[in-house]
Automatic annotation (TrEMBL):
GO BP, sorted A to Z: 2-oxoglutarate metabolic process
Name of the featured protein: Dihydrolipoamide dehydrogenase
Key words of the record: FAD, Flavoprotein, NAD, Nucleotide-binding, Oxidoreductase
Residues forming the catalytic site: 449
Family to which the UniProt record says this protein belongs: Belongs to the class-I pyridine nucleotide-disulfide oxidoreductase family.
Amino acid sequence: MKKFDVCVIGGGPAGYAAAMRAIDFGKSVALIEKDKLGGAGIHQGALWSKTWWEISREARMINVHGNALNVGSTEFSYEKVKGEVAQAVDQRVNLLTHHMQNINLGLGGDLFEYIHGTGRVTSKNTVEVSGNGQDQCLEAQYIILATGSVPRKLPHLPIDEEIVFTSDGLSNLTHFPKSIVIVGAGVIGCEFATIFSNFGHTKVHLIDKGDRILPFEDEDVVKVIEKNLEAKGVLIHRNSKLIEMRVEEEEVVYILEYTDGNKESFRVEKGLISIGRVPQYDKLLDDSLGVEIDDRGIKDDLTQTSVSNIYAVGDITADISLVNVGELEGRYAVERIFGKPEQPLIYKNISTIMFLDPEVAGVGMNEIQAKQAGLQYKMVSLNYETISRATAMRNTQGFIKVLVTNDDEMNILGMRVVGEHASSAIQAVALLISQDNSIKELAELIHPHPSIIEGIQECGRILMGKPLFKPRVLRNAIRCQVWDGNEYQDLVE
Ligand SMILES: Cc1cc2nc3c(=O)[nH]c(=O)nc-3n(C[C@H](O)[C@H](O)[C@H](O)COP(=O)(O)OP(=O)(O)OC[C@H]3O[C@@H](n4cnc5c(N)ncnc54)[C@H](O)[C@@H]3O)c2cc1C
Ligand SMILES: NC(=O)c1ccc[n+]([C@@H]2O[C@H](COP(=O)([O-])OP(=O)(O)OC[C@H]3O[C@@H](n4cnc5c(N)ncnc54)[C@H](O)[C@@H]3O)[C@@H](O)[C@H]2O)c1
């Protein structure tokens, strides 16, 4: 039986990051992957969907600016776009593979081994690997579970991955459908509504069980996204509930019931179900192990499960499903096992981008979360029209919104940026949040010009009462208020 210091099950972002960090400690590590290296970080997930999004944006630009450039209307070839996306995926897998294949060079021993097969933890220190024609059993001092998540399904939704898809099966599509209904208007649903509507070949219908799209995001953010989706012909179903969905003559028929009791039936070519993801641990653990599991998934205390040498990282822990969080947890678990973690595992400064139209970047709390936490906070919101980079881009749609503590310190609680280059604005604020630091730090820091991040600097100056643009003059572009637990009060007269 081969022996390793660590056995990592799952070769997605969390597992890969854990394995690579173990090598830094000079530990022997086996990385087991049952399907495709990279997991949802690459395939049918982050990289794949972002490549679709990037190309769809270019398509949209060509369509929008076509007249000015004398291009006229353009048909985009589904096959060619799909081919380009496949190349992006291959490129990334090739990089990881090359890196993995050469990782032992110069280490003075074979520390790393990649094993293709399905892993199953049979005892506290043993893992069985099957399905690759060479079943084997490994012994490991520590085991890290990183088997990710899969799309959530419900019995009344007829998912067949041919007519009604999840994101996992969407690459089976062979053409831009004439119409598609997307059930679940969260991150995946709205990203694909953006992608399909950007190409302009598909009529998109969008449904959520919440009373609006992106129900977990602030209303001002959602308003901009809704407006742009609807401008591209997306039908957002409101005040209604999906009561039936079926496949009929190779098309999707669905019935909505409105709040007034009326019902309406719709027929579209395809369906996409994006109602969340669930952790994947089916048949992963022998019952005798006693790893504690609750209705959300495997229970962990800062990545350690109830069995002391078994750790769980990434989507399997059912907290936050993001590549950066998976990597953070994977690295943290290994540092905790073999040394002292360099940083505590904190989630309050996790940053995200939602790839919509325009992009939405977020770090820390939004207003919904701050209110749920019962906080009083100061809020400043600054429209893109005040930022000269946005003027230069000829696109001033969007805003920056910063939340800070309602005291003299004004420590940053969170930020949302909606607009072009939104993601460029996140890093500095993420750092300040992790340090429990104040917006004042940014107000005095010299920023590059012209840049979107100058808008964050201006937010700081507004809160400190020394902005370039006076809120009382630009009332439509600047809001500066305090939420006192019950209502907003203007901070500038
Ligand atoms: C459509 C879509 C778009 C997304 N976009 C973004 C984005 O833009 N940004 C972002 O940060 N996140 C995004 N995510 C989320 C992100 O992809 C996941 O949070 C991340 O991939 C989780 O990493 P993981 O390693 O925990 O799991 P996964 O990536 O799911 O990897 C788990 C791996 O484990 C393997 N596995 C499972 N069981 C076994 C077993 N028994 N033995 C061996 N191997 C096993 C699986 O085959 C898989 O390769 C997106 C997800 C989806 C679905
Ligand atoms: N850009 C990114 O970072 C990115 C992109 C895609 C996915 N992801 C990750 O993947 C995860 C999964 O994405 P997702 O969009 O599936 O989940 P989600 O939690 O973002 O959204 C699910 C949506 O489905 C709705 N819903 C739930 N049950 C429903 C039902 N029965 N009928 C109608 N609507 C229903 C919810 O109200 C919610 O709005 C996300 O939480 C995110 O962490 C991240």
